[in-house]
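Can you please make up a protein's amino acid sequence together with its fold in C-alpha cell form to help me picture the idea?
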Amino acid sequence: MKTNDEKLRETLKKQIEVEKETTEMVKKAEERVSETAVKLAFMEIRLDSLKHQMFLEGFLDMLDVTPCDEWSAKAQRYVDRVKLERTVNSIKEKEIEMLSLAKESLQNTSDPIAGFMLNHLIEDEKHHRDTLMKLIRIIQQSPLQSVKAEKGSDIVCED
C-alpha cells in the first residue's frame, strides 16, 4: 500500500506532465496566430502553465531533496529567509510603480480588450503580492530545523 507521501509525489509528477503538455500545446497555438490580442491571451496561458510547472517541480524538490539538518544548513536557511524578505521588500516599490503605471494606462485606453488585459494585470499583481506575502510568513514561521532535537544546538540527521 502506498503512503500518502508516495501518493503526493505521484500526483505532483502527473500535474507537472499536464502543465508541460499544456505549455507545449499553447506554445504551438501561439505560433500559429497573428492577432496580437490572441497572441497575448495564449502567452498568458503558456506562462501561467510554465509557472505552475516550475512551482510544482520546486515543490517536488523540496519534498525529495531536504538536506540533513546540519548547522550550516540551518544557518543557510536563516540567511535565505532574510534574503527573501529583503528582496521582496525591494520589489514592493517596483510593484507600486507598476500598478500606478498600469492604472494610468487603463485611464488612457478606450479599447475594451486592452482595458480588460490591463485590469487583469492589475488584479493579478495584487493577488500575486498577497499570495507571496502569505508564503513568506509561512516560510518565516517554519522551523529552521525540521526535526525536533533535545537542545537547540543538537543536529539531528536521519540515517
